[in-house]
Amino acid sequence: xxxxxxxxxxxxxxxxxxxxxxxxxxxxxxxxxxxxxxxxxxxxxxxxxxxxxxxxxxxxxxxxxxxxxxxxxxxxxxxxxxxxxxxxxxxxxxxxxxxxxxxxxxxxxxxxxxxxxxxxxxxxxxxxxxxxxxxxxxxxxxxxxxxxxxxxxxxxxxxxxxxxxxxxxxxxxxxxxxxxxxxxxxxxxxxxxxxxxxxxxxxxxxxxxxxxxxxxxxxxxxxxxxxxxxxxxxxxxxxxxxxxxxxxxxxxxxxxxxxxxxxxxxxxxxxxxxxxxxxxxxxxxxxxxxxxxxxxxxxxxxxxxxxxxxxxxxxxxxxxxxxxxxxxxxxxxxxxxxxxxxxxxxxxxxxxxxxxxxxxxxx
Length: 363
What we know:
- Pfam families: ABC_tran, TOBE_2.
- This is ABC transporter ATP-binding protein.
- By secondary structure, the chain is α+β, with helices and mostly antiparallel strands.
- It has two domains: about 5-225, P-loop containing nucleotide triphosphate hydrolases (Rossmann fold); about 235-355, CATH 2.40.50.140.
- It contains nine helices and 20 strands.
- It has helices spanning about 45-55, 95-105, 110-125, 140-150, 170-185, 195-205, 220-225, 230-235, 295; strands spanning about 5-15, 20-30, 35-40, 60-65, 70, 80-85, 155-160, 190-195, 205-210, 215-220, 245-250, 255-260, 260-265, 280-285, 290, 300-310, 315-320, 325-330, 340-345, 355.
- The strands form four sheets. A six-stranded mixed β-sheet has the order 6-7-8-3-9-10, sandwiched between helices.
- α2 packs across α3 (about 110-125) and α2 (about 95-105) runs parallel beside α4 (about 140-150).
- The mean pLDDT is about 95.
């Protein structure tokens, strides 16, 4: 383990009977890093977080926090603070009482308790809420108290298990900003579980995308968005998700992708290694397809007929059929496009993602 690692996970296995939930999982999280575990329900992200927290006993492997092997340590001995999806506040206690309860149980001096509670209240901007009881708080305020309860423990590592999923869209956006500001202020290591890709992309220094107990890709939000490691990651990230075409890479001369009678030049595409011929998936994000005059200057252009138009305010999603596939295109919200219109569309090879057909790995 390197000295810069805050949390180190080595060859972690977890099984429930014959069911393997986590499989030989390795992960290094740097000091002060904000890492997001992202994936669909059942991928193992919350299970991994609970293993780090000590709430689940692992089947194999090791967990180190700040250089210490805590694989079999009690949760209270791991130097972590955890925020759950459920607020789990004591209803009979004030906000101040909820924040100080754990510190009183730990028999900290009164002055130290007061100092920590005051600091947490200032950081989370809830000094005026300290005398209120949970029933008098909004959902967002209650979640802020739950975060504050972890904050007063003065730990090195914070674990968040889908803390915003019970809130409405506006509150989620507001609290997301609060959590990002909190990390910038404290510089603590934070590990955050979510199924919401917007939360992941906006909060994370790095994202670990999980599927079936395995990490599919561990990288910055920018790299995951622009260079997904495989077709699953490409499809999971982005809303609307990436459009895909099945065809073949041809390396006779300049490399091309051929599908449904069309030949798409790949001269601007950045291959992972030397291009090899063979069946492949080609992916292009809806927002990387251009229309009208911009399409004329593209590496590949084609005419298509508009089937469905979905106005979304700042942008519009257009559905149409291209090269035998129904695809989505994201265009400006002020565009006047109607079903039945003929649309000239185009895209550049540099914007494409290519995946080998069998392994679905990026090529």
